[in-house]
């Protein structure tokens, strides 16, 4: 089989349908000489004559008619396929794949997708988390990512959503039993929840009227998941050192009480949304990114779930 250029077949279909080189040039903008050369090359490769040339124009030969009947369907199918791709790209209906680091990804992604799903019924979501101590996944694995910490040095677009600050929290039940600490040293006799990252314990940096220091506490639970820490704290088992936004709803509902003060002049942790530059052209991804950027504070403070008080 001769190696035939697809462009030559495309030019042949265009000329056959328009009936002349002049009209084909007007439709496509391709120079007449280029089209003529393309047809001659195709005829030489196939060793057949495709057109009969006359003063009245071009007329298909039997070989030309056979080629048109079979090849035109291919290009019609391609046109249908490309139109479908463009419609899929331009619509808000469809799936968005969101990735998040394990520290806060579940909370932020859950709140954001819940908000978007309620406002845009045609959207669907695939959400996953990854360990923040591992390399960033390939861009093909996600549409956008929630990243907590120092923005990674990569080819991704990084847009800052906001900052995260920390404070000690306890349930009213625990405070009723053990008393409310007034000074940092008062925590030393209270059960606490240790959060470890990469095997390193996260320090509780707090401030009272006298000083700013790392608080000591009795380790009752050791976890590497903030949801687990919040679970123990809300259950009244121990004090937890948690991000403010992460317990906003629990504090608002009275299930947790903030203790002492967060340390002043301490660097806060930044939260970013990361995506490939080309992904922002997708209207679904753009909607997610812009919603996160514009409504981050509202999203993270209203997770959308309800605390149900126990009757016992």
UniProtKB/TrEMBL annotation:
Q: Which family does it belong to?
A: Belongs to the LysR transcriptional regulatory family.
Question: HTH lysR-type domain location, by residue?
Answer: 4-61
What keywords are annotated for this sequence in UniProt? DNA-binding, Transcription, Transcription regulation
Record bears the keyword Ribosomal protein: no
Name of the protein in question: LysR family transcriptional regulator
Cross-referenced Pfam families, in alphabetical order?
A: HTH_1, LysR_substrate
